[in-house]
Write a structure and sequence with these properties.
This protein is mainly alpha-helical. It has one domain. It is 70% helix and 0% strand.
């Protein structure tokens, strides 16, 4: 039980700074486009301005933030659902597909 308590105390979920939130917004807009186009090779080219902020520490903050309480999943699902193309062409939104895209994005953060 003490090990579990220690693990929970070690988890530090920080609310990202504005620049980190801008990076998340940009990346998830790109992820939405990839999802709608049915892309299976997912690669998001960061904006040159954002590259400076994609440090291992900031990637960990993004990872922890998006992985907490399905924030990443809910964000992508909301973006895809609200996209005009999705509504216009009645593109089905499969929860497993949404989760797969988010999981892949989170994995790329761990590589950074």
């Amino acid at each position: 039980m003490d090990e579990l308590t220690k693990l929970l105390n070690d988890i530090n979920i920080e609310k990202p700074d504005d620049i980190i939130l801008q990076i998340i917004e940009y990346d998830f807009n790109q992820l939405t486009r990839l999802f709608i186009n049915g892309e299976t090779e997912i690669y998001i080219e960061p904006e040159p301005f954002h590259e400076y902020y994609l440090t291992p520490e900031n990637c960990k903050i993004i990872y922890n933030y998006l992985g907490n309480n399905y924030i990443g999943y809910n964000l992508l699902k909301k973006k895809v659902s609200n996209e005009l193309t999705t509504k216009r062409f009645n593109i089905p939104i499969n929860d497993n597909d949404i989760q797969t895209y988010v999981d892949y994005y989170l994995q790329t953060l761990m590589i950074e």
